[in-house]
Amino acid sequence: MKIYFCGSIRGGRCDAELYGRIIEQLQAYGPVLTEHVGFKDPILKDIEGDDVAIHTQDMAWLEESDVVVAEVTQPSLGVGYEIGRAVAWKKRILCLYRPTEGKGKFVSHDPRGS
């Protein structure tokens, strides 16, 4: 079973250690295609830092995956997008959320976050 793990990369670096522990547990069930999300510095060595190339690679991994595990405590448009694509591709999805950590924050259309 191929697993696609997603969590907030730009806004959730404080959770990188947690992501790493989750990924380590998931690897008992199969390869985690996006294990870099759990690295302290998630720079992809095989992909230039180009956002288009990263998106293309992520979507290829997502399409290849059998299941998606998403840590959704930190608000993230990127994780929401990945979940939306996974739904469209009829992937099985498990969302993990820590209710005491998010403190009611939501993704807002207002760039000031209000």
Automatic annotation (TrEMBL):
A Gene Ontology biological process term: nucleoside metabolic process
InterPro entries given in the database record: 2'-dNMP_N-hydrolase, DNPH1, Nucleoside_deoxyribTrfase
Organism superkingdom: Eukaryota
GO molecular function, one term: 5-hydroxymethyl-dUMP N-hydrolase activity
EC class: hydrolase
One Gene Ontology cellular component: cytoplasm
SUPFAM superfamilies, per database record: N-(deoxy)ribosyltransferase-like (SSF52309)
Pfam families per the UniProt record, alphabetical: Nuc_deoxyrib_tr
Reactions this protein catalyses: a purine 2'-deoxyribonucleoside 5'-phosphate + H2O = a purine nucleobase + 2-deoxy-D-ribose 5-phosphate; 5-hydroxymethyl-dUMP + H2O = 5-hydroxymethyluracil + 2-deoxy-D-ribose 5-phosphate; a pyrimidine 2'-deoxyribonucleoside 5'-phosphate + H2O = a pyrimidine nucleobase + 2-deoxy-D-ribose 5-phosphate
Record-listed E.C. numbers: 3.2.2.-
Subcellular compartments: Cytoplasm; Nucleus
Family label: Belongs to the 2'-deoxynucleoside 5'-phosphate N-hydrolase 1 family.
Assembly, per entry: Monomer and homodimer.
Stated name of the protein: Putative 2'-deoxynucleoside 5'-phosphate N-hydrolase 1
Organism, as annotated: Branchiostoma lanceolatum
